[in-house]
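Our preliminary data section would be incomplete without showing what the modeling component actually yields. Below, a chain of 461 amino acids is followed by its predicted structure, encoded as tokens that our downstream tools consume directly.
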Amino acid sequence: MNVPRVLIVDDDAGQRSLLDSFLRNQGFQTIAVASGEQALDILGREQIDMMISDVRMPGISGLETLRQARRQNSALPVLMVTAYADIRDAVGAMRDGAVDYLAKPIDLDELLALVRKATGIAGAGPAVFEQKRLPPGIVAESPLTQAVFREAALVAPSETRLLITGESGVGKEIVAEVIHLWSPRASGPLVKVNCAAIPETLLESELFGHEKGAFTGAVAQRIGRFELASNGTIFLDEIAEMSPHLQAKLLRVTHDGCFQRVGSNVELHTRARILAATNRNLEEEVKKGRFREDLYYRLNVVEIHIPPLRERREDIIPLASQFLAELTQGRARFSPSVIDCLENYSWPGNVRELRNAMERAALLSRGELVLPEHLPARVRQATQTLAGIQQATLNPDSTPAPSTTSARSLEEIELEAISKALHEHDFNRTETARALGISRRTLVYKLQRLRALGYRVDPDR
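Predicted structure:
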């Protein structure tokens, strides 16, 4: 059986690396080039079974590359990759012969489904990947957490930039550490920068370094974090807190790796792989003018969303047990009623709040049996509130009954609606998100929930 050859056309080295490594790992032969001119040259002299092209590129645009490629080979399947701002161009590309288009950030499962369909290769379900052993101390009992690390394993081997999203305290830094560990850069440094914790006046120097005398207090030259991370990975946490001035400078680094130290005109170059994280919705920040749209798309080649702890309850007790064992050298244990309290609380502060609760419990229990009174009051009260609701439901004559529609049933209604819309739009996630009036990022996250619950979210292949 001949292995299909896929031509990847993208001027962004990170995106090119991602598609190249991902499709190779899925069994395809790939050729990756940086321009439409190179793509047309290859199409003129080699057998290609499918082309994947970005829409916006310097020189010959993706749309013009598509038109010329179709003139060379009218049967060539072409998949266009586009940002939201280019959707009209992508729809126009469909009229020019593209088989479909993908919106950024790319959903790798959707990409694989479209490539398999276009090349006639049968497949069974989502992308396969080499199962990697999680580092000691990482808990992934929940199907949603397992999906996060599955995505991490898929993208770790590439050089592409990643955006890690989720509420405060969900473990974005942990995921960044695992991606670095699983990447070819694991022997290099992982340099972390919390953009929210460093004053704006100092952040530029922290990131890019400064020369002696560049400003008051600059008594010596300083090497910046991008320089230090040149052969490794730089993790920019809370990226949404960065000022517009620094966003412009960061955009340049994401484009060609070039930067200048504060107080210097000498251009330096970094090879650092960029991982960024935020607890905000960057799409909304872009709409409100608080975050550069071009930087958003440069950083968000692939997005990994970490669900809140309340939606991955299978992780709560294993995490709590691990924290307690670390804090008490394995001496303490939970009473059954404590387990109920931990499972019934919503954990708005996520894993960070859970660890703080375990520190309190370890201290008050003196490293022995942990009882409910050793937990924070808000954690205990959640179980008491739930017990009151259950009692009122069992005795409706004594207390007005609560609504019969529970939070769980509301979630089921929502997921059923999403599943129906997905089928109605032939599993096209961009069209499904538009029909539902939600962002594509939100849809992809909801599909993880559907898959974990056994729903069919991928087309038959």
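Confidence is low (pLDDT under 50) at residues 400-407. Residues 319-394 form a domain with the Helicase, Ruva Protein; domain 3 fold (CATH 1.10.8.60). Preliminary results of this kind motivate Aim 1 of the renewal.
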